[in-house]
Automatic annotation (TrEMBL), chain A:
Pfam families: CEP19. This is Centrosomal protein of 19 kDa. The keyword Cell cycle does not apply. GO terms for biological process: microtubule anchoring at centrosome; vesicle targeting, trans-Golgi to periciliary membrane compartment. Keywords: Cell projection, Cilium, Cilium biogenesis/degradation, Cytoplasm, Cytoskeleton. PANTHER family: CENTROSOMAL PROTEIN OF 19 KDA (PTHR31539:SF1), CENTROSOMAL PROTEIN OF 19K CEP19 (PTHR31539). It comes from the Eukaryota. Belongs to the CEP19 family.
UniProtKB/TrEMBL annotation, chain B:
It holds the Pfam family Ras. InterPro entries: P-loop_NTPase (IPR027417), RabL2 (IPR041835), Small_GTP-bd (IPR005225), Small_GTPase (IPR001806). Residues 212-225 have a biased composition (Low complexity). PROSITE patterns: RAB, RAS. The keyword GTP-binding applies. This is Rab-like protein 2B. It comes from Callorhinchus milii.
Length: 164, 225
C-alpha cells in the first residue's frame, strides 16, 4: 500500500488534520480526516506532530508529510485556540520559519536558536559537499577577484558617516 | 597563574608557551557557522573535546610548517557568544583569531566591531582574520565590498563551510600567522607577562628555603636586580 500525499492542512472546527492523498494502487485521490484530540492552547506542537506521525493508524499515510509541516499545522491550530486571527498566526509562523537578516540570534533562547539553526541547516545540507562524495575536493581555492566598480554590501553605509 | 589553572583544571594553558603549541580562537555571533568551518577543515580529524562547563569546544590539529611540527588547538565557543562577551581565559595566550560573520545576516556583520573591540582589549596585537561565511547561499555576494576588514587592516576571506570554498586556505594562512606571531611576538603585554614570570622564577630560584623578608638582605645585590 503506497499513498502519495498531495496536500495537508488543518481544520479548526472541529479540530482535525486533513490529508489529501493519492492511492498508488487505485490511482484515486482521497481525503483523510484525522481528528485532533486532547489539544489545547498550551499543548506542545512538536510533540503533537510526532505523536500523529507515529500513530499506527495514520502512519502509513503520513510517511511523505514532513514533521515540520505537521508542526506548523498544530501551531496554526494552537494560535486559533488562543484567539489569534489566521493572518496574524501565519505571519508569526512565517517569522519563526525564516531568517531575518537583522535579528540578533544571540538573544534567543536555546529552543528558538535551534529552530533557526534548523532552517539554516537546510541550505547547508543542500549545498554541502561531503567528504565521501565522489567529486569531493579537500582544498578548494577560489580567488574572487573583484571587478571595478565594486558595489558595496550596503551594510557599511551607516558607518561611512562616522569618523571611525 | 595558579588561580587560572584552578578555575579551569582541564585547561592548563601553560602549554601554549612551548614552541610547538599554538592557540587559535574563533569569534563571532551565534549560528554564523564557526563549528561547521572547523569541521570542514578537519574533515577526518580528531573528535573535538567538549567542555560544556565552559561552553567551549576544543579541536586539536597537527601540521608541519617549515619542517617543524606545529600542534594547533582551535578554541570554538559552544554558546558562550550568546552573552556577547567571552570569558577572559578564552583570549588568554591566543596567537591568532578567526572572526566569522554570515553573509546572509547583516546583524552578524555589524557585531564584528564589538567582537573585535573585545579581542583587542585582551590581545592587542595578535593576527586576526575576517571571514565571510555562507557564500554558497549567494555567489554574487563575492563581488561586493565589506569594508570592516579593510578599515581595520585585516585579511579577508570569502568562504563556504558547505561546499568548502577557501576553508583550507583560510585555516592554513591563519596557522602560519599564529606561528609567525609566536616567533616574533611584539605584543607588549606578552613581553610584560614573560618578564614578570621570569622575575618570579628567578626570585624563587634564588632562595627556595628562605622566607622572602630575609632574601632581600642576604642575596648578592647583582642577582636581585
Amino acid at each position: 500500500m503506497t499513498y502519495t500525499p498531495k496536500k495537508c492542512g488543518v481544520k479548526f472546527k472541529p479540530p482535525a488534520i486533513i490529508l489529501i492523498y493519492e492511492d498508488e494502487k487505485t490511482k484515486k485521490i482521497r481525503q483523510r480526516s484525522m481528528p485532533v484530540r486532547n489539544f489545547s492552547k498550551f499543548s506542545d506542537c512538536s510533540r503533537a506532530a510526532e505523536e500523529l506521525k507515529n500513530n499506527p493508524r495514520h502512519k502509513p499515510f503520513l510517511g511523505g508529510v514532513s514533521l515540520q509541516q505537521l508542526q506548523k499545522l498544530y501551531q496554526l491550530l494552537r494560535n486559533s485556540l488562543s484567539g489569534l486571527s489566521l493572518d496574524r498566526s501565519l505571519e508569526i509562523i512565517h517569522k519563526e520559519n525564516t531568517i531575518d537578516s537583522e535579528e540578533d540570534l544571540n538573544k534567543l533562547d536555546d529552543k528558538e536558536l535551534d529552530q533557526k539553526k534548523k532552517i539554516m541547516d537546510e541550505l547547508f545540507e543542500k549545498n554541502r559537499k561531503k567528504s565521501d562524495d565522489p567529486d569531493f575536493v579537500y582544498d578548494v581555492e577560489v580567488d574572487f577577484a573583484q571587478v571595478e566598480p565594486i558595489e558595496s554590501c550596503g551594510w557599511d553605509d551607516e558607518e561611512t558617516n562616522e569618523d571611525f | 597563574m595558579a588561580g587560572e589553572s584552578r578555575r579551569l583544571p582541564e585547561l592548563n594553558q601553560d602549554k601554549y608557551d612551548t614552541d610547538e603549541q599554538v592557540k587559535i580562537i574563533c569569534l563571532g555571533d551565534s549560528a554564523v557557522g564557526k563549528s561547521k568551518l572547523m569541521e570542514r577543515f578537519l574533515v577526518d580529524g580528531y573528535r573535538p573535546q567538549q567542555l560544556s562547563t565552559y561552553a567551549l569546544t576544543l579541536y586539536k590539529h597537527s601540521t608541519t610548517l617549515n619542517d617543524k611540527t606545529v600542534l594547533v588547538d582551535f578554541w570554538d565557543t559552544a554558546g558562550q557568544e550568546r552573552f556577547q562577551s567571552m570569558h577572559p581565559s578564552y583570549y588568554h595566550k591566543a596567537h591568532a583569531c578567526i572572526m566569522v560573520f554570515d553573509v546572509q545576516r547583516k546583524v552578524t556583520y555589524k557585531n564584528l566591531s564589538s567582537w573585535y573591540q573585545e579581542l583587542r582589549e585582551y590581545r592587542p596585537t595578535i593576527p586576526c582574520v575576517v571571514v565571510a561565511n555562507k557564500i554558497d547561499a549567494d555567489q554574487k555576494i563575492t563581488q561586493k565590498s565589506f569594508n570592516f576588514a579593510k578599515k581595520q587592516g585585516l585579511p579577508f576571506y570569502f568562504v563556504s563551510a558547505a561546499d568548502g570554498t577557501n576553508v583550507v586556505k583560510l585555516f592554513r594562512d591563519t596557522i602560519r600567522l599564529a606561528v609567525s606571531y609566536k616567533e616574533n611576538s611584539s605584543d607588549f603585554m606578552d613581553e610584560v607577562m614573560r618578564e614578570l614570570e621570569n622575575f618570579a622564577l628567578e626570585a624563587k630560584g634564588d632562595g627556595p628555603e628562605q622566607n622572602p623578608e630575609t632574601t632581600t638582605e642576604t642575596t648578592d645585590p647583582d642577582t636581585t636586580v
